[in-house]
Specification:
By secondary structure, this protein is an alpha/beta fold. The protein has 9 helices and 11 strands. The strands form 2 sheets. Strands 2-1-3-4-11-10-9-6-7 form a 9-stranded mixed sheet, sandwiched between helices. It has a two-stranded antiparallel sheet with strand order 5-8. Strand 9 and strand 10 (172-175) form a beta hairpin. Helix 3 (72-86) crosses helix 4. The chain is globular and about 60 Å long.
Protein backbone atom coordinates (compact mmCIF):
# COMPACT_ATOMS: atom_id res chain seq x y z
CA UNK A 1 0.00 0.00 0.00
CA UNK A 2 1.36 3.40 -0.94
CA UNK A 3 1.83 5.61 2.13
CA UNK A 4 0.76 9.14 2.90
CA UNK A 5 3.89 11.29 3.02
CA UNK A 6 4.55 14.02 5.56
CA UNK A 7 7.00 16.49 4.00
CA UNK A 8 8.52 17.92 7.16
CA UNK A 9 10.14 21.31 6.60
CA UNK A 10 11.51 21.76 10.11
CA UNK A 11 11.08 20.79 13.76
CA UNK A 12 9.37 22.50 16.70
CA UNK A 13 11.44 24.28 19.35
CA UNK A 14 13.07 21.68 21.66
CA UNK A 15 10.94 22.39 24.73
CA UNK A 16 7.72 22.16 22.69
CA UNK A 17 8.89 19.04 20.90
CA UNK A 18 9.70 17.40 24.25
CA UNK A 19 6.14 17.94 25.50
CA UNK A 20 4.04 17.73 22.34
CA UNK A 21 6.05 15.77 19.77
CA UNK A 22 7.24 16.63 16.27
CA UNK A 23 5.36 18.15 13.34
CA UNK A 24 4.66 14.71 11.90
CA UNK A 25 3.11 13.64 15.23
CA UNK A 26 0.74 16.61 15.15
CA UNK A 27 -0.38 15.93 11.60
CA UNK A 28 -0.80 12.19 11.97
CA UNK A 29 -2.84 12.68 15.14
CA UNK A 30 -5.03 15.32 13.47
CA UNK A 31 -5.48 13.13 10.39
CA UNK A 32 -6.13 10.00 12.49
CA UNK A 33 -3.58 8.32 10.26
CA UNK A 34 -1.51 5.34 11.50
CA UNK A 35 2.22 6.03 11.50
CA UNK A 36 2.79 2.57 9.99
CA UNK A 37 0.94 3.78 6.88
CA UNK A 38 2.87 7.06 6.63
CA UNK A 39 6.30 8.10 5.42
CA UNK A 40 8.03 11.12 6.96
CA UNK A 41 10.65 12.92 4.86
CA UNK A 42 12.69 15.63 6.61
CA UNK A 43 13.49 17.79 3.60
CA UNK A 44 15.31 20.44 5.64
CA UNK A 45 17.87 17.69 6.42
CA UNK A 46 18.18 16.87 2.70
CA UNK A 47 16.29 13.59 2.92
CA UNK A 48 15.25 12.61 -0.62
CA UNK A 49 11.66 12.82 -1.80
CA UNK A 50 10.12 9.82 -3.57
CA UNK A 51 8.52 9.86 -6.98
CA UNK A 52 4.87 11.00 -6.72
CA UNK A 53 3.74 7.65 -8.14
CA UNK A 54 5.11 5.92 -5.02
CA UNK A 55 2.86 7.72 -2.50
CA UNK A 56 -0.87 8.30 -2.04
CA UNK A 57 -0.62 11.99 -1.18
CA UNK A 58 1.56 14.50 0.64
CA UNK A 59 1.18 16.98 3.48
CA UNK A 60 3.75 19.80 3.60
CA UNK A 61 4.30 21.16 7.10
CA UNK A 62 5.08 24.53 8.60
CA UNK A 63 8.60 25.66 9.45
CA UNK A 64 10.61 28.29 11.26
CA UNK A 65 12.40 28.85 7.93
CA UNK A 66 11.39 31.56 5.47
CA UNK A 67 10.43 30.76 1.87
CA UNK A 68 11.97 34.04 0.67
CA UNK A 69 15.42 32.83 1.85
CA UNK A 70 15.35 30.31 -1.04
CA UNK A 71 17.34 27.69 0.87
CA UNK A 72 18.62 24.91 -1.40
CA UNK A 73 16.47 22.24 0.30
CA UNK A 74 13.40 24.46 -0.02
CA UNK A 75 13.95 25.11 -3.72
CA UNK A 76 14.45 21.39 -4.33
CA UNK A 77 11.15 20.77 -2.57
CA UNK A 78 9.47 23.43 -4.71
CA UNK A 79 10.71 21.63 -7.82
CA UNK A 80 9.32 18.35 -6.46
CA UNK A 81 5.97 20.06 -5.79
CA UNK A 82 5.72 21.13 -9.42
CA UNK A 83 6.31 17.50 -10.42
CA UNK A 84 3.67 16.36 -7.92
CA UNK A 85 1.18 18.86 -9.33
CA UNK A 86 1.86 17.60 -12.85
CA UNK A 87 1.16 14.07 -11.56
CA UNK A 88 -2.14 15.23 -9.97
CA UNK A 89 -0.98 13.96 -6.56
CA UNK A 90 -3.23 14.96 -3.63
CA UNK A 91 -1.42 17.74 -1.74
CA UNK A 92 -2.14 19.68 1.45
CA UNK A 93 0.26 22.47 2.43
CA UNK A 94 0.20 24.30 5.76
CA UNK A 95 1.86 27.66 6.57
CA UNK A 96 5.35 27.15 5.07
CA UNK A 97 3.85 24.44 2.88
CA UNK A 98 1.10 26.85 1.79
CA UNK A 99 3.66 29.49 0.90
CA UNK A 100 6.08 27.07 -0.74
CA UNK A 101 3.49 25.66 -3.15
CA UNK A 102 2.43 29.20 -4.07
CA UNK A 103 6.08 30.12 -4.69
CA UNK A 104 6.63 26.94 -6.72
CA UNK A 105 3.72 27.80 -9.00
CA UNK A 106 4.65 31.43 -9.60
CA UNK A 107 3.12 33.31 -6.68
CA UNK A 108 4.93 35.87 -4.51
CA UNK A 109 5.86 35.14 -0.88
CA UNK A 110 7.49 37.59 1.50
CA UNK A 111 7.17 39.21 4.92
CA UNK A 112 3.70 40.55 5.55
CA UNK A 113 3.80 44.36 5.55
CA UNK A 114 1.69 44.48 8.72
CA UNK A 115 3.90 42.06 10.62
CA UNK A 116 3.10 38.89 12.49
CA UNK A 117 -0.24 37.09 12.75
CA UNK A 118 -0.55 34.80 15.77
CA UNK A 119 -3.23 33.18 17.88
CA UNK A 120 -6.69 31.82 17.20
CA UNK A 121 -8.14 33.90 14.38
CA UNK A 122 -11.52 34.40 12.72
CA UNK A 123 -11.42 32.87 9.23
CA UNK A 124 -13.85 34.15 6.60
CA UNK A 125 -14.69 31.81 3.74
CA UNK A 126 -14.87 33.82 0.51
CA UNK A 127 -16.55 31.35 -1.81
CA UNK A 128 -18.39 28.04 -1.80
CA UNK A 129 -15.99 25.76 -3.64
CA UNK A 130 -17.04 22.28 -4.73
CA UNK A 131 -13.62 20.68 -4.35
CA UNK A 132 -13.07 22.21 -0.91
CA UNK A 133 -16.55 21.17 0.19
CA UNK A 134 -15.68 17.58 -0.69
CA UNK A 135 -13.03 17.76 2.04
CA UNK A 136 -15.28 19.48 4.57
CA UNK A 137 -18.45 21.57 4.15
CA UNK A 138 -17.02 24.57 5.96
CA UNK A 139 -19.20 27.34 7.38
CA UNK A 140 -18.62 30.86 6.11
CA UNK A 141 -16.93 31.80 9.41
CA UNK A 142 -14.80 29.57 11.65
CA UNK A 143 -11.80 29.68 14.00
CA UNK A 144 -8.25 28.53 13.23
CA UNK A 145 -4.82 28.77 14.84
CA UNK A 146 -2.14 30.93 13.21
CA UNK A 147 1.47 31.91 13.62
CA UNK A 148 3.45 33.43 10.72
CA UNK A 149 5.41 36.44 9.63
CA UNK A 150 5.54 35.66 5.90
CA UNK A 151 2.48 35.32 3.66
CA UNK A 152 1.43 34.66 0.11
CA UNK A 153 1.32 38.28 -1.06
CA UNK A 154 0.31 37.37 -4.63
CA UNK A 155 -1.44 34.07 -5.38
CA UNK A 156 -0.28 32.07 -8.42
CA UNK A 157 -2.25 32.29 -11.64
CA UNK A 158 -5.07 29.76 -11.55
CA UNK A 159 -5.18 29.46 -7.76
CA UNK A 160 -8.60 29.86 -6.16
CA UNK A 161 -8.50 32.20 -3.14
CA UNK A 162 -11.08 30.74 -0.74
CA UNK A 163 -10.53 32.29 2.69
CA UNK A 164 -8.99 35.23 4.50
CA UNK A 165 -8.58 36.92 7.86
CA UNK A 166 -8.58 40.64 8.61
CA UNK A 167 -4.76 40.38 8.50
CA UNK A 168 -4.09 38.02 5.59
CA UNK A 169 -5.88 37.86 2.24
CA UNK A 170 -4.81 34.29 1.39
CA UNK A 171 -5.69 31.80 4.13
CA UNK A 172 -6.94 29.00 1.86
CA UNK A 173 -5.75 28.44 -1.70
CA UNK A 174 -6.94 25.61 -3.94
CA UNK A 175 -5.44 24.28 -7.15
CA UNK A 176 -7.66 22.01 -9.20
CA UNK A 177 -9.58 19.36 -7.25
CA UNK A 178 -6.73 17.70 -5.33
CA UNK A 179 -4.33 20.36 -4.02
CA UNK A 180 -5.19 22.64 -1.09
CA UNK A 181 -3.16 24.87 1.20
CA UNK A 182 -3.88 26.84 4.36
CA UNK A 183 -1.96 29.65 5.99
CA UNK A 184 -3.59 28.64 9.28
CA UNK A 185 -2.60 25.49 11.19
CA UNK A 186 -5.35 22.84 11.29
CA UNK A 187 -2.94 20.44 13.02
CA UNK A 188 -2.43 22.63 16.13
CA UNK A 189 -4.07 21.70 19.41
CA UNK A 190 -4.96 24.46 21.86
CA UNK A 191 -2.02 23.31 24.02
CA UNK A 192 0.42 23.74 21.12
CA UNK A 193 -1.02 27.16 20.24
CA UNK A 194 -0.64 28.38 23.82
CA UNK A 195 2.89 26.96 24.05
CA UNK A 196 3.96 28.80 20.89
CA UNK A 197 2.49 32.07 22.16
CA UNK A 198 4.31 31.70 25.49
CA UNK A 199 7.60 30.88 23.75
CA UNK A 200 7.36 34.15 21.83
CA UNK A 201 6.09 36.16 24.82
CA UNK A 202 8.94 38.70 24.91
CA UNK A 203 8.77 39.36 21.16
CA UNK A 204 4.99 39.64 21.24
CA UNK A 205 5.03 42.17 24.07
CA UNK A 206 7.71 44.18 22.20
CA UNK A 207 5.45 44.15 19.12
CA UNK A 208 2.54 45.55 21.13
CA UNK A 209 0.46 42.37 21.59
CA UNK A 210 -1.65 41.86 24.69
CA UNK A 211 -0.35 38.46 25.78
CA UNK A 212 -3.20 37.78 28.21
CA UNK A 213 -5.76 38.53 25.50
CA UNK A 214 -4.00 36.25 23.00
CA UNK A 215 -3.99 33.38 25.48
CA UNK A 216 -7.60 34.00 26.49
CA UNK A 217 -8.72 33.87 22.85
CA UNK A 218 -7.16 30.45 22.19
CA UNK A 219 -9.98 27.95 21.70
CA UNK A 220 -10.65 24.66 19.88
CA UNK A 221 -10.76 24.83 16.08
CA UNK A 222 -12.87 21.83 15.01
CA UNK A 223 -13.69 23.12 11.51
CA UNK A 224 -10.05 23.63 10.63
CA UNK A 225 -9.31 20.10 11.87
CA UNK A 226 -12.17 18.69 9.76
CA UNK A 227 -10.60 20.17 6.65
CA UNK A 228 -7.38 18.26 7.30
CA UNK A 229 -9.29 15.06 8.03
CA UNK A 230 -11.17 15.51 4.78
CA UNK A 231 -7.83 15.47 3.00
CA UNK A 232 -7.07 12.22 4.78
CA UNK A 233 -10.28 10.76 3.35
CA UNK A 234 -9.23 11.90 -0.12
CA UNK A 235 -5.93 10.03 0.28
CA UNK A 236 -7.69 6.90 1.54
CA UNK A 237 -9.87 7.04 -1.57
CA UNK A 238 -6.67 7.24 -3.62
CA UNK A 239 -5.27 4.20 -1.83
CA UNK A 240 -8.49 2.23 -2.42
CA UNK A 241 -8.42 3.10 -6.13
CA UNK A 242 -4.79 1.95 -6.38
CA UNK A 243 -5.71 -1.33 -4.69
CA UNK A 244 -8.52 -1.96 -7.17
CA UNK A 245 -6.20 -1.29 -10.09
CA UNK A 246 -3.64 -3.72 -8.68
CA UNK A 247 -6.20 -6.49 -8.06
Amino acid sequence: MRPLMIVSTGTPPPEIRARHGDYADWFLHALRWPRAQARVVQVDRDEPLPAPRDIAGAVITGSAAMVSDHAAWSERTATWLRTAMDANLPLFGVCYGHQLLAHALGGRVDYHPQGREIGTQHIELLALDEALSMLAPLPMHFAAHTTHRQSVLEAPRGARVLARTAHDAHHILAYGARAFTTQFHPEFSTAVMRALIMRRAADLRAEGYDLDALLHEVRPTPWARRLLRGFGRLCRTEIAAMARQAA
